[in-house]
Amino acid sequence: MKPWFSLSLLVLSVFYFTYGIYSLDLLTFTGRLGPGFFPFVVGISLVVLTSYNTILAFKEKKTVLASGVDDNESGFIPCSFDVLYLVLTVGLFILLLNVLGGLLAMLLFNLSLLAVFNKGAHLKNISFSIGISLAVYGLFEIWLKAGLPEGILGL
Amino acid sequence: MIADIFSNLALGFSVAVSPANILFLLIGSVVGMIVGLFPGFGPAAGIAILIPMTFGMDPTSAIIMLAGIYYGAMYGGTITSILINTPGESATVASTLDGYPLAKQGRAGPALVMQAVASFVGGTTGVILICGLIPYLASFAASFGPTEYFLIIVFGLLLLTTVMGENKINGIVSALIGFAIAMVGVDIISGMQRFTFGSPELIGGIYFVPIAIGLFGMGELMYCIYQGQHRLDPEPMRIGFRSKNFWPTKKDFTDSKYTFVRGSIIGFVAGLLPGSGGTIGSIMGYSVEKKVAKDDSKFGKGDMRGLVAPECANNAASSGSMVPLLSLGIPGSGSTAVLLGAFMMWGLRPGPMMIVEEPEFIWGLIASMYLGNMALILMSIIAIPFFVKFLDVPYRFVVPIIVMLCVVGSYTLHGSIIETWIFLIAGLLGFGMKLYGYSPAALVLALVLGSMAENTLLQSLIMSDGSLLIFFQRPLSAIMTSVLILLIVGPYIGRKIRRRVSATTETRNA
Q1: Which of A1, A34, B106, B183 has a CA that sits 20 to 30 A from residue B374's CA?
Q2: With contact defined as beta carbons under 8 Å apart, do B361 and B60 qualify?
Q3: Count of CA atoms in the C-beta half-sphere (13 A) of A65
Q4: CB–CB of A42/B186 below 8 Å?
Q5: Do A144 and B187 touch (CB under 8 A)?
Q6: Which residues are CB-neighbours of B100 under 8 A, at least 6 positions away?
Q7: How far is CA B92 from CA B98, B99, B269, B283, B390, in A?
Q8: What are A33's strand-pairing partners?
């Protein structure tokens, strides 16, 4: 995955540099340094360094593939699915925040996350979800008066 | 000078010793200790997540609480280093070397008490040194021009990326990403919109808090899950301070009497350097102690000095790193960068002028650090059984709590759903950065200092009509530029010289 992460950074850097160079002026009309100067320096440095990193990462991957060394030889098995599931549930939580309101969205998030992270313990998961959602709601909405979204049910 | 320090401290205590400030100081210290307990979850994450909760508070109380989290995490981080050989915080890595062997020998109690005493000595020494140093550094910094400020920012970032990071290029890329994000919004000199893509939400720029919460909170959390921490069931631990074996012996104290002094001074100096901080300080403290010891054979096998030295150092470093933050307005680490962001949120701009204009705030904060260290040593000893109970909570139950605080905190900053999405994107970025050796701390530091770096660079170049010679014209800037060049080129020259020397030796041997 490392080469793809490096490549993503390179693509974003090229986009940042290109957008900056086309939308911002390097110099003002009086000949002084303009709003595009610093982004230009940052952008070009990013493009050069992320290109170097990407080439290095792909070379490394090629060497590893050629040597035939198994990544999982150390016995470490990454929990990639759990990370993906967490990201999806957080994304859903944010999407539902305005629709269902703060309290219900939190409750749903807790239940769906614990259904996978703490399988089987339904009663424990439900009581924990209700308790912790109420606590966070109380902290932000009642004590701090931070203004959580109310949603369609007005909660 | 001494009279000035006492009068400043008296002013500070008059501010800090109010019921509200004491309450928030205690909350911050307890939260800091809990944050320090959880491996992979540092003070930067704790401060960032708690910032949204401080909105309705008085700025002094809020900063006192957030600073309490910062140095409280140093106390808490060592508990896991000693008990389960897992540092709760990067600055407590060196404490595992002798802390865990001590626990295995059945001396967990004495080790925990000694770490609390060492943390207190280091933290308090650091605060005393701050009192002496800040006014002088601030008056010295008052003569700085934009060139010197720009060089300090670059110096700090370079130290953070080259000294702390394993991969220097990745560190520099991280800092550049921070600068790139800082450019979003309206350019204050020309009034032109940059990288806003016509969105009114982006005109004010990308706020640093969701980014910090995402990088340090969500990113770290995802990394811990990736490593399977949520699948582990903790082994219940019981420690009682009523047992005789809980307390250290007289010999423990006499053996370490000079270690307290050495560790504290080394740590404080390390904390002063931008980009260095507690991690480097504690490792240096440990190495020096091992070198000066007459008999170093017990180091790594459970020598009390090997625990006292890094503990004094990391706490003194956390005080030391407040010096550049308060006197220059330049943070030296991810945690102090988040603190600087919090300062700015309340319209406070640390630096030489702040010491003159807001003495109540500065000295109130310093006085609160004295009080915080006193509260923390009491909590560390009396409440160790209570804090150890937190380690019994399975990580899978900690995950939803942290995520909810992150999401709700990001949303409630401005009631903006876009900022909440920015938090999630920053979390994904933070996860990737952590996984592939980039530096989220450098990113946040550059993000917070981005506009200052740009303005000072442009001012310098405008003053010199575009000539780079301005970086060599004043003696101070010439010295700083030379050090910077040395820092960049030095390692390459050193490597070449070493290669040449080894090649010559091989030829001679042949």
Answers
A1: B106
A2: yes
A3: 6
A4: no
A5: no
A6: B81, B82, B83, B84, B85
A7: 11, 10, 17, 9, 18
A8: A27
What are the DSSP calls for B450-474, one per residue?
Answer: HHHHHHHHHHHHHHTTT-TTHHHHS
Chain A residue with CA closest to B227: the answer is A78
d(CA B323, CA B329): 9
Task: Answer yes or no: do B172 and A87 touch at CB < 8 A.
Answer: no
Out of A2, A46, A91, the one facing B176 most closely (by C-beta) is A46
B303-347, pLDDT tens digit by residue? 899 999 999 998 898 888 888 888 888 887 778 888 888 888 888
Q: Is B190–A35 a contact, with Cβ atoms under 8 angstroms apart?
A: yes
Percent of chain B with pLDDT over 90: 17
- Asked which of A42-51, A63-72, B458-467, B475-484 is least confident by mean pLDDT, the reply is A63-72
Say if residue B350's pLDDT is above 90. Answer: no
Question: For B169, which of A33, A52, A102 is closest by C-beta distance?
Answer: A52
- For A46, the closest of B173, B421, B461 (CB atoms) is B173
Can you tell me the ipTM of this complex? 0.92
How would residue B240 be classed by pLDDT, with cut points 50, 70 and 90? Answer: low
Least Cα distance to B78 among B47, B144, B137, B122 occurs for: B122
pLDDT tens digits, one per residue of A124-134: 999 999 999 99
Which pLDDT score, from 0 to 100, does residue A18 have? Answer: 95
- Report how far Cα B235 is from the mean position of its chain's Cα atoms: 30
Secondary structure (3-state) at B77: helix
Q: How far is B459 from chain A (nearest CA, A)?
A: 10
- Collect all residues with Cβ–Cβ distance below 8 Å to A30 and sequence separation of at least 6: none
Instruction: Fill in the amino acid letter for B477.
Output: S
Question: How far apart are the CA of A68 and the nearest CA of chain B, in angstroms?
Answer: 21
Q: How many residues does this entry show for chain A? A: 155
Q: Most B CBs within 10 Å: which of A24, A52, A76, A86, as the mutation test of the B interface?
A: A86
Domain ranges (residues) in chain B? 2-473, 474-510
Q: Residue holding tokens 């060049």? A: B485
Give me the residues of B, 172-191, that contact A with CB < 8 A. Answer: 172-173, 176-177, 179-180, 183, 187, 189-190
Q: Is the pLDDT of residue B72 over 80?
A: yes
